[in-house]
Amino acid sequence: MRIGIVGLPSAGKTTLFNLLTEGHVETVSGKMEAHLGSAKVPDRRIDFLSDMYKPRKTIYAQIEFVDVPGLARGSAAKGGVNQFMAGVREADSIIQVVRAFDDPLVPNPEGSTNPVRDAELLHTELLFSDLEIVEKRIERLEGGKKGKENPIELP
User: Fold this and answer.
1) To pair with 92 at 20 to 30 A between CA atoms, which of 39, 67, 74, 151?
2) Does the pLDDT value for residue 80 go beyond 70?
3) pLDDT at 31 over 70
4) At 75, which helix (H) or strand (E)?
5) What's this model's pTM, rounded to 2 decimal places?
6) At what angle do helices 115-147 and 82-89 cross, to 10 degrees?
7) Would you say residue 32 lies in a domain?
């Protein structure tokens, strides 16, 4: 299973990613790149079965996490949403990280801390991205119709 960690810039996505994957990705790198990591899912039932049957190797379930680059206001309209959406499309599920802290060393890109506004902003950007995909699909479908117009005559 692959889970995408999404949110606005400086919300804490990479910090959560590092916590879940025991990673050491720089949290304030400013780079717009996705990070991939995985975490084993501990399960006492597997330990019990492993003790009982003594296999050569015990393999735990793993979850892959993708630290998706932050999505800023207006990204969908500017076309800068491609890398963000690539990370989301590859994920089976997403975790939305919303900033709920003030820190003068990590300024909020929106100017103030408002978790409800930030969550709605991300939802709006995702809706605009979906709308763009639908519009392109409609254009392709309409373009295909124009090239193949053959009126059907009924007897």
Assistant:
1) 74
2) no
3) no
4) helix 75-78
5) 0.74
6) 90
7) yes
Cα angle 109-110-112, degrees, rounded to a multiple of 5: 110
Q: For residues 10 and 113, is the Cβ–Cβ distance under 8 A?
A: no
Say how many domains are in the chain.
1
Domain containing 39 equals 2-142
CA–centroid distance for 81 within its chain? 11
Single-letter amino acid code for the residue at 91 = A
Query: Residue 16: how many CB atoms within 10 A of its CB?
Result: 16
Within-domain flag for 14: yes
124, part of any domain:
yes
Phi (first) and psi of residue 15, to 5 degrees: -60, -45
Whether 33 is in a domain gets the answer: yes
Q: Which residues pair with 39 in a beta bridge?
A: 63
